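Predict the 3D structure for this chain.
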Amino acid sequence: MSSLPRMKRIYFDHNASSPLRPFVKEALQKALEEGLGNPSSTHGTGRKARSALDRARETVARFMNRPPGEIIFTSGGTEANHLAWRAFQTPQKTACTLPVEHPSVLQAAKALEQAGGSLTFLPLTSQGALDEASALRLLEKKPDFLSLQYANNETGLLYGNATLFAFAKEKDVVVHSDAVQAFGKSSLDTSSIDLLSLSSHKLGAPAGVGALAVPKGIPFHPHWSGGGQEKGLRTGTENLLGILGLAAACEYLMESGSEEAKRIEQFRTQFEEELAQTLSDIHITGKGLPRLINTSHIQFEGVDGESLMMAADLEGLEASMGSACSSGSLSASPVLLSMGWPEAKARSALRFSLGWSTQEEDVIGAVRILRKLVTHLRKSS
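Done. Predicted structure below.
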C-alpha cells in the first residue's frame, strides 16, 4: 500500500529558532567522530578540547566584534540576559529598559524592583519606535544600568540606537543590549555597548548555547560558583559540541552573511508586496521604520490571528503570534499591548520570519495559502 506524499512545510518562524544549517551539522558530525574531551582536563584529549574551545571563542569574538577575553559561553540568550542584569538587582540600583523587551529581560527587571531597586521604561512612539528625545532626557538622570534590545523578536523593529548608547556611556551608565535577534540580520554598532547577548539557535546553530560579552571592570555577579570555568563567571563544564556549532555558523556569516541577508530581504519584500496585492486591509507593523530584514509582522483586519495561524499550520505554513501561556492557549501579545495596540488588533497579527532556508517557492506558497485562508475566515466571520 503506497503512502500519501508528505506535505512540504513552509517554515517562516526563524525568529523562534532557525533550523540547523547543513555545514554546521557537518562540523558537529566531524567533532563527534574525532571525539570530545573535557576542556578542563589536563591530559591530551582535554588539551585538544581546550584548543578547540579557544579557537571557537576567537571566532565568536570576531563575529561579535569583541576581544576573545570578553566572551563567556552560556546556555543561550535567556541566561546571557539574566547574567547581564545580576549585578544590578540590588536595592538603590536604578535601571532603564523597554516595555517590549524579551521576557527574560522583563523578568530580570522585575527582580530588580523586587529587590528594592528602581526601574524606568523608555517611552515608545505611537508606531512603536523608540522615543529618542524622551529616552535621552531619562538618561540625563544617570541610571546605573541601561538594557536596550537591539531588535524586537516579534515586530522586527530595530531599537539599537548608537546615539543613545554613546550618550549612556558618557554618563557612566553600564549598557547592555540583547542582540539575539539582530546578529546575522542587521549591521550592529556595538562600540558603546558593554554587555552583549547572543544566542546560537537564532543563527542556524544548535540550541542550548549562547554567549555574553563581559568587558573587564564591568560589575558582574555569577549565578553560581563551582568549577571555575569561563573565568568563574559562568562555572560548569562548557557545552563544547554546541559551542563548535555556534562558531561554525559565525564563521559562515562573517564570510557570506551579507549575501545571505540580501537574498532574505528580497524574499521578505516579495512576500509583503505580493500579499498586499492579493489581500486588502492588511497592515505591516513598522513599515517605513528600521526593522529586521527577515521579519514581517502583519495585522489581518477581521481575522483572529490564532485561527489563522492554526489553519495555516494545517496547510503547511508555519508562523507565530503571541507567546503561549502555561495552559498552552495563546494570549494577546504583551509586546503589542505595550505598544498601545487594542487587544482585538493585537490578536489579529501574525509574525512571519524568513531565514537561510527560505526559497522563492516558499514565498509564493505562503502568499497562496494566506490569500485562501484570510478570504475564507473573513467570509465566515
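The first helix runs from residue 22 to 34.
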